[in-house]
Amino acid sequence: MAEHVHGSMDIREHEKTFAGFIKLSIWVAGVSIGILVFMALVNA
Cytochrome c oxidase subunit IV bacterial aa3 type domain: which residues (predicted)? Predict the structure, then answer.
C-alpha cells in the first residue's frame, strides 16, 4: 500500500457537496423565517 501524502487527495466532490449543503441550509432557514413571519401576520 502506498504511503499517504497529506494534502494529495482530490476533494472537489466533497467541496461541491458541502457547498450544496450550505445552500440548502440557507434556503431552509429563509423559508422557515418566512413561514414564521407569515404566521405572525395572519394571527395578528
Answer: 4-43
